[in-house]
Amino acid sequence: MLGFEVSAYLVGDLLVDTGFSHVRDRFLKVLEGRRVRAVCCTHNHEDHTGNCGPLAAIHGCPVYVGNHGLRWSEGVRRLKPYRAWFWGSPGWYEAREMPAEVLGTERSLRTLPAPGHSITHVALWEEATGTVFTGDLFIAPGASAVMVQENPYELVASLRRVAALEPRLMLTGHGLAMEDPAPRLRAKAEMIVDTAARAVELHRTGMDDRAIVRTIFPTGNRRDRVIEALTQGEFSRLNFVRAARRHLHDRSTAVLRQ
After folding, report:
1. CA distance readout (Å), 198 to 151, 156, 189, 209, 215
2. H or E stretch including 206?
3. Which of 60, 49, 7, 55 is nearest to 31 (CA)?
4. What string of DSSP letters covers 104-154?
5. E-strand spans in 1-85?
6. Measured between alpha carbons, how far is 110 from 154 in angstroms, rounded to an integer?
7. C-alpha 183: how far from its chain's center?
8. Model pTM?
């Protein structure tokens, strides 16, 4: 319906993300006969954790989430109608804190904190193959509309942190596979920095937030307003402008965390 893929990856017997609940029967069928030793969630949003409970029950395996005590924040406990309609509820599942390294039978994944899009977000790094699984860290190039809880400065630090690995391959949570992704990760980080700085400076001149959106995002504003209305304000370019100002005090801290 959205023309938007959702991806999960089986790395040996480690599963990265679990898709969304509307495709549960199909997803579980794909994994029939496979062993899952652990579920590793890039972050706790319903399009990535929708099948954690059934998978954990079937395979008797742990489900790991970063900052797992906060996993029901960011609108997940009570989904807005568009999220429930598109993805469905993830349902309850028992989670454990994501360890620094998740060990499978033959393969392993190292965890890198990657907040910005979500406080629970991590990237998962398989050093042996040079592959990094990045969830929603990189969906599209440049600065763009964001969810209301996002922190652009934390996102910049996360993009640079993953780029520093110089991965051979990046596999995202929404269908994108990219070889040698580091230059594009850094380019996205710089675009966010520049766009956020421009938004802050325009605000200091007295320009209102809507006018700032039209100025720094000169195309696609009608579509953006439709999406904003559909998501009850949870996803929009306006959120980016407001987050750039709201989290300005986080900028130095985020850079230090790279």
Report:
1. 16, 15, 14, 12, 10
2. none
3. 55
4. -SS-EEEEEE--SS-TT-EEEEETTTTEEEEETS-SSSSS--EETT--HHH
5. 9-11, 14-16, 38-40, 63-65
6. 20
7. 19
8. 0.94
* Rounded Cα–Cα distance for residues 92 and 54 (Å): 10
Q: Is 207 exposed, middle or buried (0-12, 13-18, 19+ CB in 10 A)?
A: middle
Closest CA to 96 of 125, 53, 75, 65: 65
Pairing between β-strand 63-65 and β-strand 38-40 as defined by DSSP bridges: parallel
- pLDDT band at residue 1, thresholds of 50, 70 and 90? low
Cα–Cα distance, 102 to 110 (Å, whole number): 6
pLDDT digits (tens, 9 = 90+) for 196-224: 999 999 999 999 999 999 999 999 999 99
User: 2.60.410.10, 3.60.15.10, 3.40.50.720, 3.10.129.10: which CATH number matches 9-256?
Assistant: 3.60.15.10
